[in-house]
């Protein structure tokens, strides 16, 4: 794609597990994973270096009844394992698209993945390998949002892109309140003071500390990811 210049060259994409479930609401929708892989292929063709922090809600929700009453730490580890399902599924879809990808896990599962080591991950990323970052931070009590901000800081990402099922950050839940208003841009401080929930507060605080802007956007709309990479203002920008 000579002549097309991307605005961002080094990106951390936070991809929720729910996004991979499609209309089913849980599990993995193969067609959605394949579509996601094709969208990733388009931005890799622009020369973008990409790390993807994968959530696990689509798998873990199916286990929610079993996890009810479970010790919080054990439940969190189950959630981390759920992210591995998604990471491996995306890796295989990227492999089919001839895109080099590697699953790196914060939890040791050698039969499926390599361990996440920042220096090695950076070297892989620099070569153009798409990183599928699984198991969050590897610690209970931390969300995959926070893990995304941590990995973005370690990998030198220019921006964190959070793909959601709504158009950005709203002043209320748009699914419950049709009058909710979207923010086109909001500062880290205002976001935290307003107790907004589009992204975990710890993640936003970490991004602020490391001066990494966050864009929250609707990942269900085909082409949104590529448009953002090329500089189109979509969703909500959290910065400064």
Description:
- There is one protein chain.
- By secondary structure, the chain is an alpha/beta fold.
- The chain has one domain (10-239): Carbamate kinase.
- Helices cover 38% and strands 19% of the residues.
- The protein contains nine helices and eleven strands.
- The strands form two sheets. The protein has a nine-stranded mixed beta sheet with strand order 4-3-5-2-1-6-10-11-9, sandwiched between helices.
- Helix 1 (30-44) links the parallel strand 1 and strand 2.
- Helix 1 packs across helix 4 and helix 6 packs parallel to helix 8.
Short key terms for the protein model shown above:
Carbamate kinase, nine-stranded mixed β-sheet, 11 strands, 9 helices, globular
Secondary structure layout plus pairing:
Blueprint: E1 10-15, H1 30-44, E2 49-54, H2 57-60, H3 64-67, H4 72-96, E3 101-105, E4 114-115, H5 118-126, E5 130-134, H6 144-155, E6 159-164, E7 169-170, E8 182-183, E9 185-187, H7 188-193, H8 201-209, E10 214-218, H9 224-229, E11 236-239
Parallel strand pairs: 1-2, 1-6, 2-5, 3-4, 3-5, 6-10, 9-11
Antiparallel strand pairs: 7-8, 10-11
Helix pairs in contact: 1-4, 6-8
